[in-house]
Amino acid sequence: MAVNLVARFGRDEAGELLQSSFAQFQADAGVVGLTSQLRKNEAALDGYRESMTCHLGDFGEYSRIRQRITATEKSNSRRRAATRRSAIAGSLEKLHRGDVIHLSSGRRRGMAVVLAGSGESVAARSQPC
Question: What is the pTM of this model?
Fold first, then answer.
């Protein structure tokens, strides 16, 4: 075949044709290998799915329930944080200049004096108790 190609197309063009043909052969072999690996992986997944069910229950169902619980817990946590931020903002809006407040936690806990009212920017100075 190679001799016929050289005789018909010349040495350079015959070389290019053979290389492209070999490259296609390798690519086809790669596809066959990937397809074979895909089948093995699918068979393994089928085995895992089968072993996820036993007399104690279905692990897939359990996993889906756990995911829903986690999503609900996260949603509730975000809702509680938003409610808390809203309550804090509402409390801060009620403060007036000269009000003395007690900050029970945080880096600046202790007594604090409001230096600006709700129409102004609210700032406070704290003194440790």
Answer: 0.46
Q: For residue 43, name the pLDDT band (cuts at 50, 70, 90).
A: very high
DSSP symbols for 49-94: HHHTEETTEEHHHHHHHHHHHHHHHHHHHHHHHHHHHHHHHHHHHT
Residue labelled with tokens 């600006």? 116
Alpha-carbon distances of 22 from 8, 11, 17, rounded to whole Å: 19, 16, 9
Give the type of residue at 106. Answer: G
Distance CA 129, CA 35 (A): 73
Angle at 119 between CA 118 and CA 121, to 5 degrees: 75
